[in-house]
């Protein structure tokens, strides 16, 4: 039967020869995603963050991975994604080394925790600028490179790192992350709008929404919430997120396996958002 004749199933999750750009790729979830892209077969993965030394160190680690395709490499391209000038600088660095981009992972982000009554306007603005405005600028500026080799059958991919805080209520109280939660809800909706705008150009746009993954950004909040062990035991799967959980979702969305997924927001939190039938979001 025709339905059983899957086309080239062994390559379904392959990224053989693809070119990717990962913002916020020097550490945490971005570094896990970049590692997955390279190990799935990408030929070039550009690693960007504000600090050049951090990008260089991340690339050194990635390029030492044992199972990369011949010639595959991570390339350091430091830039400040919070400003339009920084995004355009990133574009110029990438354009100097490739004529197209297949995967754009908009992972750079910031948060700020403070009580409602003293929550600074400047902090709220900083978080919104990077987490929402910066993503819009990034996708708009990179759209020509994303379109270059895109097609309906093999679209280019944009993946936005959002958060479960954009799906429910985030952290309140003395370390309230009001700007962060609002920004993640906004960027999920932005992603859906961009999916409709860019789909006809052969570009899909999806968001991943992680819950608690131990990282530099979340470790302080983890400690305030009782620690990783406590929160892990409260999760329906009795653990927190791991690097492989991010890696699997990113490879799915950016490989042929995810070519027909567009405008989606995938929750990656072990089901904690819906625990006990109610919203129970910590990040």
TrEMBL record:
It comes from the Eukaryota. Keywords: NADP, Oxidoreductase. Signal peptide: none annotated. PROSITE patterns: ADH_SHORT. The keyword tRNA processing does not apply. GO terms for molecular function: oxidoreductase activity. Pfam families: adh_short_C2 (PF13561). InterPro entries: NAD(P)-bd_dom_sf (IPR036291), Sc_DH/Rdtase_CS (IPR020904), SDR_fam (IPR002347), Sec_Metab_Biosynth_SDR (IPR052178). Belongs to the short-chain dehydrogenases/reductases (SDR) family. This is Uncharacterized protein. It comes from Dichotomopilus funicola.
């Amino acid at each position: 039967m025709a339905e059983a004749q899957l086309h080239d199933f062994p390559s379904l999750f392959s990224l053989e020869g693809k070119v990717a750009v990962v913002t916020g790729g020097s550490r945490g979830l971005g570094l896990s995603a970049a590692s997955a892209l390279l190990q799935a077969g990408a030929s070039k993965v550009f690693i960007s963050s504000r600090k050049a030394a951090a990008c260089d160190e991340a690339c050194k680690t990635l390029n030492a991975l044992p199972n990369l395709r011949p010639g595959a490499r991570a390339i350091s391209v430091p830039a400040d994604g919070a400003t339009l000038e920084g995004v355009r600088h990133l574009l110029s660095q990438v354009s100097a080394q490739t004529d197209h981009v297949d995967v754009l992972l908009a992972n750079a982000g910031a948060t700020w925790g403070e009580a409602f009554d003293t929550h600074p306007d400047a902090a709220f603005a900083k978080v919104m600028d990077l987490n929402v405005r910066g993503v819009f600028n990034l996708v708009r500026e990179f759209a020509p490179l994303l379109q270059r080799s895109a097609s309906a059958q093999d679209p280019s991919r944009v993946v936005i790192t959002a958060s479960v805080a954009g799906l429910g209520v985030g952290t309140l109280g003395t370390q309230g992350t009001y700007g962060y939660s609002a920004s993640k809800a906004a960027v999920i909706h932005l992603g859906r709008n961009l999916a409709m705008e860019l789909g006809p150009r052969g570009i899909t746009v999806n968001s991943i929404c992680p819950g608690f993954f131990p990282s530099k950004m979340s470790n302080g909040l983890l400690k305030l919430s009782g620690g990783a062990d406590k929160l892990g035991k409260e999760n329906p799967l009795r653990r927190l997120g791991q690097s492989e959980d991010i890696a699997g979702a990113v490879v799915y969305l950016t490989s042929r396996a995810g070519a027909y997924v567009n405008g989606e927001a995938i929750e990656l939190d072990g089901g904690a958002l819906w625990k006990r039938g109610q919203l129970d979001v910590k990040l």
